[in-house]
Design brief:
Blueprint: E1 3-7, E2 10-12, E3 18-25, E4 34-39, E5 46-51, E6 58-60, E7 68-73, E8 78-83, E9 92-98, E10 103-104, E11 108-112
Parallel strand pairs: 2-11
Antiparallel strand pairs: 1-3, 3-8, 4-5, 4-9, 5-6, 7-8, 9-10, 9-11
């Protein structure tokens, strides 16, 4: 059974950091690119960052570039999102996604507030 399980969300003050993790199971994780998305009630789900299957290539959006880092550990079947210098507008539910297979996790809530 395919599963993407996000963790690491929480409440953080502006300027703080969080590291999200997504543990994958039930498919050949190391063969596929992975992405992180986020969504708020007011907006459509938006791409945050992507990483190639081997981890050698990463892409970011204007909102995440310079502050977020996506990485993966194919031995552990985990993809990470390190988020620094967090802003209130980063508040959202963050989702792990395998684009090729269209697999989604259940999401983890990130709230940035003082």
């Amino acid at each position: 059974q395919v599963r993407l399980a996000e963790s690491g969300g929480g409440l953080v003050q502006p300027g703080g950091s969080l590291r999200l993790s997504c543990a994958a199971s039930g498919f050949a994780f190391r063969m596929y690119a992975m992405s992180w998305y986020r969504q708020t009630p007011e907006k459509e789900r938006e791409l945050v960052a992507s990483i190639s299957s081997a981890g050698s290539s990463t892409t970011y959006t204007d909102s995440s570039k310079g502050r977020f880092t996506i990485s993966r550990d194919n031995a552990k079947n985990i993809v990470y999102l390190q988020m620094n210098s967090l802003k209130p507008e980063d508040t959202a539910v963050y989702y792990c996604h395998c684009p090729t297979k269209n697999y989604w996790g259940q999401g983890t809530q990130v709230t940035i507030s003082s």
